[in-house]
TrEMBL record:
Alphabetic keyword roster: CBS domain
Entry annotated with the keyword Ligase: no
Protein name from the UniProt record: CBS domain-containing protein
InterPro entries (alphabetical): CBS_dom, CBS_dom_sf, Diverse_CBS-Domain
Organism from which the protein derives: Thermodesulfovibrio aggregans
Listed SMART domains: CBS
Length: 133
C-alpha cells in the first residue's frame, strides 16, 4: 500500500492528568464521544499512558468501584504503544495484531501527535483501492 502512518492518523487527541479521577475521564470521554485519552507524564522521567473506555468498564465499573475515588494513574496502561509517523502502514498493522490492540498512537520525537485506529486502516484501504480502479 506504501501509505505512511502520518497520512491516515487522526490528530484529534484528548489528554488527562494522571492524578485526575476516573469520573473526570468518563465525563471527558462521553462529552467528546471518544474511546481513549492520553495520560500525560507526571514529570520528565515519566512516560505517556493511555486510558480507554474498556479500562474504565472492566477495571472500575464491573468491580463496583467508585469512579470518584480511583485515580487515572491507578488503572492507566503505560507506556503507550506508539509508532513513528513516517512508518509504513503495513508495520502498523503488524503491531496492532501482535499486541491485539485497536489503536496505536503516533509519535514525533518524544511527543504524541496522533492516533491510528483499525477503522482508519480500513478507510485507507478503501481509498487506496479506489485510486487503483
Amino acid at each position: 500500500m506504501n501509505t505512511k502512518v502520518k497520512e491516515i492518523m487522526n490528530t484529534k487527541l484528548e489528554t488527562i492528568q494522571p492524578d485526575a479521577t476516573v469520573y473526570d475521564a468518563i465525563e471527558k470521554l462521553v462529552d467528546r464521544r471518544m474511546r481513549s485519552l492520553i495520560v500525560l507524564p507526571k514529570d520528565d522521567n515519566d512516560v505517556y499512558g493511555v486510558i480507554t473506555v474498556r479500562d474504565i468498564v472492566f477495571k472500575v465499573i464491573s468491580k463496583n468501584l467508585d469512579p470518584h475515588k480511583i485515580k487515572i494513574e491507578e488503572i492507566a496502561s503505560k507506556p503507550v504503544i506508539s509508532i513513528d509517523k513516517e512508518t509504513e502502514i503495513e508495520h502498523l498493522i503488524k503491531l496492532m495484531e501482535k499486541f491485539n490492540i485497536a489503536r496505536v498512537f503516533v509519535h514525533e520525537g518524544k511527543q504524541i501527535v496522533g492516533v491510528v485506529s483499525l477503522f482508519d486502516v480500513l478507510s485507507a484501504t478503501l481509498i487506496a483501492r479506489a485510486r487503483r480502479d
